[in-house]
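Reopening this one. Same input as before:
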Amino acid sequence: MTDDLDSLVRQWAQWPDAPAPPAPPTDACLSYPQADKIARGELAADEKTRSHLQQCPYCRKLVSDFAQAFAEGPPQADPAPRDRTAILGLPARAWLAVAAGVLLAVGVGTFLLFRALRPEGGLLLAANVGLKEEIESQLTAKGYRKFADGERILFEVDLAREGYVSLVRLDPAGRVTARPPDVSSTELSRKMPAGPVRLGPYRLAGPAGPETWFVVAAGRRTHDVRARIDRLSRRFDPVKGRQTLAETLRAWPADVVVLTFDHLPPQP
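Same output, byte for byte:
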């Protein structure tokens, strides 16, 4: 350990407002395979598990992050030049702070470190997208998807508790728009019950290419969704990409699941 890093760790541990060690997991917490199956839709959460998910922010985020990882598909190339003095976009001094946190958590174990680094969760347990016929027949394919122009898609969302859901689209041309979660209404923030709900169907139209949809769930109704999305659309930077847009939506505050697929030209 370098002198600078050793000093940083010692100072961090002496701060009066340093975070307390994370609470140990309980027997009711999900294992990774259980969270994996719930996120994939292969295992329905029973009443006991759903009750635990409502009380445990770690398990909610675990399921949500599994679902987001499956949905985001292949990683995108970074078009921006990298700073040779930085690692993964963070300056070296910032990584010293990250390293200090990792060193302090080593004794706790990987599981608790994984839990400690996660922000407190909220409403979204999982989300998936598929063709209308697939969702209705409960035969949705998993993994990175491709849908053709003109096809109708449905979103299936699992909520830990009642909340307000919005749907935001980033199309292949880089346009950011909001879509009503209930196609029978023009409301862009719609109250939805706990449990599985379906959004759509939406008929794909527009330019072909990679497409991203953001399922946004908040505890309170967001009344100015259209104005917020209009501002986001004007300021959207394609270089920074969908991750920056997702973080902006999370700051509403809200839970966000990112779903990405290929929008293909009309099929013959």
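So the earlier flakiness isn't reproducible anymore. For the record, Residues 57-72 form the longest helix (16 residues).
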